[in-house]
Amino acid sequence: MTLTQMITEFNQIQFPKLGWEFNIDPTAFTIGGINIQWYGILIALGLTLAVLYCFPKMKRFGIDPDRAIDAVLGGIIGGVIGARLYYVIPNWAEYQRDTFKDTFLAVINTRNGGLGIYGGIIGALIVGLLICKIKKIKMLPMLDVTVLGLLIGQGIGRWGNFVNQEAFGTNTDSFLGMTGGRIQQVINSEMQIGGSMYENGLEMVWDAPVHPCFLYESVWCLLGFALLAFWSKRRKYDGQILLMYMAWYGIERAIVEGIRTDSLMLGSIRISQAISIVIAIVSIILLVIMHFRVKRDPESYVLYASTEESRMLIEETRRKGMKGMDALDDDDDEIGILDDEDEDDETAAPDDEDGDDNDDDDISDDSDDDNNSDENAEDNTKED
C-alpha cells in the first residue's frame, strides 16, 4: 500500500501515482454574503444539459414537449426534495436543532452536499408521473427519454463529490487512488471510537489513497448515456430504455456502494446497495421476458411514437403555434394597412387641389373661346 504525507491544506486533492495535484475551494464565489458552492453549480449544470438534450428528443418518443414541461419541472422539484429526505432521515440526529426554524434551515441546506440519488429518483417519479397522469402524457415513453437525461445529470453532478472530497471509498493501491486534506481529516475523525467508520467495522488509514468512487460512477453514467442514446433509435417497445437504465445503473451502484465509506446503513445492510441489487435483478429479468415476448409477437408492441394519437397531439400543438404566429402577423398587417391608407390620403389631398385648379383653368379657357367666337360673329355681320 502506497503511503502519503499529511496534507495540511484542506482544499488540496492529490492523485499520488498519477502525479496530479489540485487545489479547489468548494466555494466558487460569493454573492451578497451568500457562498455559491461548486457542488450546486455542477448539479445545476448537469440538470441544464439534461434538459437541453431531452426536450428536442421528446418527439422521437412520441411526447409533445409543450405538454411535458409541467411534468419535467414537477419531477425536478420532487427529485430535489426526495434526494434530500433520503439522506437526512437516516441521519436525523445530525440535523436536529433546538428550534424548528434552525432544524428546518439545517435540513434544506444542501450547499455542502447531502443528496441521495435513489431518493431523488423516487421523488421525481412520484411528482412527475402524477403530473403525467393529469396531463394525459404516456408514462413509459416519458420515462424512456427522462432516464437519458438522468444519466447526463448523474455523470456531471458526481464531480461535486470530487470538489467536496466526499463519497470516497476504502483504501486502495490503484493508480487512480486519490487523497486530500479533507479526506484525511474525515478518516482521522471517523475512525475514532464512536465514529461512523469505526462503528461500521471499516479498516481505514488516513495516509493511504482511497477509491475515487465519484469518478467510477461519473464515467459509468456517461458511458451508459452514450450506449442508451444509441440504442434508443433501435428500441423495440416503450419502457425498454428505462429497464436498460435500471440494469446498467443498478449493477454499477451495487458494486461501487460496496467500497464506499459513507453508505447509509440499516443495521449491517447498506441501503443503497441492497436497493441496487434488487433493481438490477428485477430489470434484467424483465428485459429477458420482454425480449422473448416481442420476438414472439412484435405486432403487439408498437412504439407510441408510431401511433396516430401521438402524431395528432404533436400536430395539434404545432398548428396552435402556427395560428398564434399568424395572428401576430395579421395584427402587424392591419397596423401597416392603416398607416398606408393615411399616407395615401395625405398624398391624395394635394392632387385634388391641383385638379380643382386645373378645372378652373379649363373653364376660363372655355369662356375666352366663347367670347372670341361672339366677336368674330359680330365682325362678319358688319362686313355683310
H/E topology pattern? EEEEHHHHHHHEHHHHEEHH
- DSSP helix fraction: 55-70%
Q: What is the first-to-last residue Cα distance?
A: 150 Å
How many strands? 7
Strand content: 5-15%
Compute the number of structural domains: 2
The gyration radius over C-alpha positions equals 38 Å
Number of helical regions: 13
* Biggest sheet character: 3 strands, antiparallel
Strand order of the largest sheet: 2-1-5
Shape: globular
Mean pLDDT: 85
The helix/strand class is mainly alpha
List unreliable stretches of 5+ residues: 332-358, 370-384
Descriptive account of the structure:
The chain is mainly alpha-helical and 384 residues long. The chain folds into 2 domains: 12-63 and 138-284, no CATH class; 307-384. Helix content is 66%, strand content 6%. The protein has 13 helices and 7 strands. The chain has helices at 38-57, 65-88, 92-95, 100-108, 117-135, 139-157, 159-164, 181-190, 196-199, 213-231, 240-256, 271-296, 308-383; strands at 12-15, 20-23, 27-31, 34-37, 179-180, 265-266, 269-270. The strands form 3 sheets. The chain has a 3-stranded antiparallel beta sheet. Helix 6 (139-157) packs antiparallel against helix 10 (213-231). It is globular and about 65 Å long. The N and C termini lie far apart (150 Å). Residues 332-358 and 370-384 have low confidence and may be disordered.
